Amino acid sequence: MSKLTHLDETGRARMVDVSDKAVTTREAAAEGFLRMAPETLALALSGEGRKGDVRAVAEIAGVMAAKKTSDLIPMCHPLPISKVEVRVEPGDGGLSVSARVKTTGQTGVEMEALTAASVALLTLYDMLKAAEKGMVIEAVRLVSKTGGKSGDWRAP
Questions:
Q1: Cα–Cα distance for residue pair 15/76, rounded to 1 Å
Q2: What are 74-115's pLDDT values in tens digits?
Q3: List of residues 6+ apart from 32 with CB closer than 8 A
Q4: Catalytic residue among 20, 92, 126, 152
Q5: Mean pLDDT of the chain
Q6: Angle, helices 38-46/110-128, rounded to nearest 10 degrees
Q7: CB-based contacts of 144, cutoff 8 Å, min separation 6
Q8: Any catalytic annotation for residue 126?
């Protein structure tokens, strides 16, 4: 098993020093799903919910969240994000969220992509909970990452 980078030699949490890492273009994609009843999905897609267009609000919330990741996750570096794209699309049994984040820097944007997807899903839940409290957020995961010392990676 490889060494955890956010722990020092004594096991104390630390922010990784990236000052010696090369500046490269880095991109990451994440996804997740909000499972719901067909009636709730129909309401979400209609745009006629009491809180408005839930998909558009969730996409904006995801973009905002990506930009605030270092404020939420203690060991994340603040990054100059060059692109965030969040999409909410209908899927079989609910709404699918995908997030893609890009930067040119010394560390990757995996956490930003995961945060964008997670907050978009939470926003959907918040906006639809009056219709259904039993919705389930599931399958939040990193789909791919490119750039950096560890190279490219894709989920199997």
A1: 7
A2: 999 999 999 999 999 999 999 999 999 999 999 999 999 999
A3: 96, 97, 117, 118, 120, 121, 137, 138, 139, 140, 141
A4: 126
A5: 93
A6: 100
A7: 27, 28, 29, 152, 153, 154, 155
A8: yes
Higher pLDDT, 122 or 11: 122
- Which residues of the chain form beta strands (DSSP E)? 24-35, 81-91, 94-105, 136-146, 153-154
Contact between 141 and 155 under an 8 Å Cβ cutoff? The reply is yes
Q: What amino acid is encoded at 77 in this protein?
A: H
Query: What long-range pairs does 47-53 form, CB within 8 A, spacing at least 24?
Result: 49/127, 49/128, 49/131, 50/130, 51/127
Placement of tokens 């039993």 in the chain = 134
Phi, psi torsion values for 104, nearest 5 degrees? -120, 110
Per-residue pLDDT at 45: 95
